[in-house]
Amino acid sequence: MELNEIDVPLAGLAPELDGFRILHLSDFHLGTLSLNGRALERAVSWAEQADLDLVAMTGDLLSRQRGEARLRNALRRLRARHGAYAILGNHDIDVTRDPFSRPTDASAVEEEGAVLLEDETVSFEVRGRRVQVVGCDPRDWKRRQPERLADPAADLRILLSHFPDVVQRLEPGTFHLVLSGHLHGGQICLPTPRGKLRLEHLRARYWEGLHRTPVTTLHVSRGLGTSFVPVRFLARPEATKLILRSA
């Protein structure tokens, strides 16, 4: 797997927030017969050695309830100066065609000290600047329009959305940074002369990595786990430390 650290230039970011560090994790898919738990363990061990301001988890934490113990262990160890925040994904609420996925109870998230955001927002102060974190509920995200939760007075507005397509529904400047997952980088990819042929979510626009879109900066994590089949090819699991920079 890959443990990545990347600089994220954000236009208009206050100098006081330069160097703000976010650990972005996604798509654990715990509870299936796979190597998903091992990947999460490695990511958490790496994170424990890092100086973090915030941990963001962008959904699909559990595919089956039997993965709850591993999730709880990870959540107890994921700590950051300004907290750990999570949202749900479509597998968490059992909106999936994956025959190996089952409905799960995500109550472990808050019981182990993280904050579960379901169309909710949290704000805190960092060196005299206000940071807002908004979490998008996957159940009805297309209709509810997460920009209604954005606070224009906040100096840094971060949206957690399991689905990267949310950026196609946002007004420019509503959020400085959007963090997403869901796509697994295609999970199974085939090399071609024109680049990767991705065999999952074929119509996706933003597959993985950092994107400067017309409305915001977007980071899409390939995630740590797998769905449907316990295999990845040319789409390695990843955990990413994002270091915000004043552009």
In short:
With 247 residues, this protein is of the alpha/beta class. It has four helices and 14 strands. It has one domain: Purple Acid Phosphatase, chain A, domain 2, CATH 3.60.21.
Structure description:
The chain is an alpha/beta fold and 247 residues long. It has a single domain, classed as Metallo-dependent phosphatases (Purple Acid Phosphatase, chain A, domain 2). The protein contains four helices and 14 strands. The strands form three sheets. A six-stranded mixed beta sheet has the order 1-14-2-3-4-5, covered by helices on one side. Strands 6-7-8-9-13-12 form a six-stranded mixed beta sheet, with no helix packed on it. A two-stranded antiparallel sheet has the order 10-11. The protein starts with a strand and ends with a strand. The model has no long low-confidence stretch (mean pLDDT 91).
CATH fold-level label? Purple Acid Phosphatase, chain A, domain 2
Percentage of residues in helical conformation: 10-25%
Give the amount of beta strand, in percent: 25-35%
Give me the secondary-structure category. alpha/beta
* CATH homologous superfamily designation: Metallo-dependent phosphatases
What is the CATH class?
Alpha Beta
The backbone outline, from C-alpha atoms, is globular
Radius of gyration: 17 Å
**Which residues form runs of ≥5 with pLDDT under 50?**
none
CATH architecture: 4-Layer Sandwich
What separation lies between the terminal Cα atoms?
Answer: 30 Å
Q: How many strands?
A: 14
